[in-house]
Amino acid sequence: MNSINRRSVLLAGLGAAGAGALAACSGSADTPALVSPHGPAVAAAEDHRTRTGRAREVTLTAARATVDLGAGIRARTWTFSGRVPGAELRVPAGDTLAATLSNQLPDQATTSLHWHGLSLRNDMDGVPPVTQAAVRAGRNFTYRFTADTPGTYFFHPHVGVQLDRGLYAPLIVEDPREPLSYDEEWVVVLDDWLDGVTGTPDDVFAELGHGMGGMHTGDDSGHDMGGMGGMGDMGSMDMSGTSGSPSASPSGRGTGTGFMLMGARSRLLGGDAGDVRYPYHLVNGRVPADPAVFRTKPGKRVRLRLINAGGDTAYRVALGGHRLTVTHTDGFPVRHRQADALLIGMGERYDVLVTLGDGVFPLVALAEGKNATGMALIRTGTGSGPKPAVRPGELDGTVMVASRLRAADDVRLDTKKTDRVHRIELTGSMMAYDWAVNGRRFDMNDPTAHPITVEQGQRVRLDFVNTTTMWHPMHLHGHTYQLGGGGPRKDTTIVLPKQTVSVFFDADNPGQWMLHCHNAYHGEAGMMALVAYQA
Fold first, then answer.
1. Does some domain include residue 478?
2. Using CB atoms within 10 A as the burial measure, which of 117, 207, 348, 361 is most buried?
3. What's residue 213's pLDDT?
4. Using CA atoms, how far apart are residues 137 and 156, in angstroms rounded to an integer?
5. Torsion angle, CA of 73/76/78/83, rounded to 10 degrees?
């Protein structure tokens, strides 16, 4: 398949019709009237945000480039300004961000920018065809919004499977009254990589779309749960001595043909770990044989901001010789917890504190269940670095997952009666590659046809009911929800096979927002829905 996929063609046509045709809000007999992404309710919500009066202007150029992944590996891909990841963007909380996207992509490819995790005005969310027309090749579009919530975020396209190219970069919203005490910080971006090496994400999606028929190992009887029972609240687990723990390998090669990876298994993920075979796993754009290096001094207290920008891979992350203190997830503070390692699904972010020893230490991102690793180095002293396939013992220690974290007191939702409950059933299989929400694949031709409706001011509960035999990182745009009654505030959460996860949020940001699996290929196949405010 070439670089123009089915969604790009559709979005280009919608763009010609203009933004006003993108989001119907008049209602019908079957669909209630919805708040328009461009309407007065959205503008009013923006006016109520705390602002500094300052503005940060930046231009982000999406274009084809050849990037150096290290160790002589070069990939022809799409990037922001020729870098992978794109240049880190920082703004103080309350500043206005004016980011101009310049689309210089080839082959008339359309694109957009989604500001992942931010609660921002709806018409700047970057989701064609719901909130804007896709930005055509040779055109510009300026995103202008108040970034009022401190935290670790990132941005990426929301067109086709462009996320699985090099079009992503960190966004850090700084807290002017930062309560954490630390000496330095390092932003760490994890990614699974194949673009320009073994093919393109469009090639991958074309192959996966054929499904696996009876060959796929992920049927109901094929999930070895290791006698662990239900895993929806497995929490912080001691993985030492776990049988079948994956061994580290820089290649990630496994059984299967083409792009499809068969036999990727993880007890942490409830069985099938993923289905795309990636030749490389990157940490800050580098392969383990030629890693990114963070240099500092022994005894320094460092804040690591960890971002999983991958398309199909969860990472188990550990720093050799150190324990991690978890302080935030998805931008929001949690009660501090210590762990040896973290499990991070696609779209999730974690902040941790670590006091560094003297030496050279591997920061390893184990591609969960895929027999491969990414690696970077932290250097505080002299000595040679570890081998690329190093596997610190911390990876098999206590692994922290979101369900064992608790929201910090100042961000926990107030106790309140739930006004509306929606069952979000995750359906589909690799057999037919028919991923969907409530049995309905999202229709790009009619995005507002079957909305999940809420009303402004309501407390909403979403029950993610995973009927499939795969795990799904479920991401809600424009809001953060709370896991259960007192869990962490998040915008992306892992829902394990055959499990149910309930989350709560306050409907305080009017508009039309996507809810979808952040596996790039599941989402594009149809595991998306629209959460829309009734007018």
1. yes
2. 117
3. 61
4. 17
5. 40
395 lies in the same domain as 421: no
- For residue 277, is it within any domain? yes
Say what the pLDDT of residue 122 is: 98
305 and 273 in one domain?
A: yes
CA distance 148 to 230: 38
Rounded CA gap, 183 and 534, in Å?
47
509 & 466 share domain: yes
pLDDT confidence band for 140 (50 / 70 / 90): very high
Give the Cα separation of 299 and 256 in Å (integer): 46
Among the candidates 394, 409, 424, a domain finishes at 409
Ranges 128-132, 253-257, 276-280, 345-349: which has the least confidence: 253-257
Asked whether residue 192 is assigned to any structural domain, the reply reads no
Beta strands in 203-279 (DSSP E): 237-238, 265-266, 271-272
Give the span between the Cα atoms of 284 and 236, in whole angstroms.
26
Q: Is 403 in the same domain as 426? A: no
Cα–Cα distance measured from residue 453 to residue 432, given in angstroms and rounded to the nearest whole number: 29
Task: Convert the pLDDT of each residue in 72-97 to its tens digit.
Answer: 999 999 999 999 999 999 999 999 99
Q: Cα(137)–Cα(80) distance, rounded to whole angstroms?
A: 14
Higher pLDDT, 227 or 125: 125
Domain boundary among 385, 409, 433: 409
How far apart are alpha carbons 5 and 473 in whole angstroms?
23
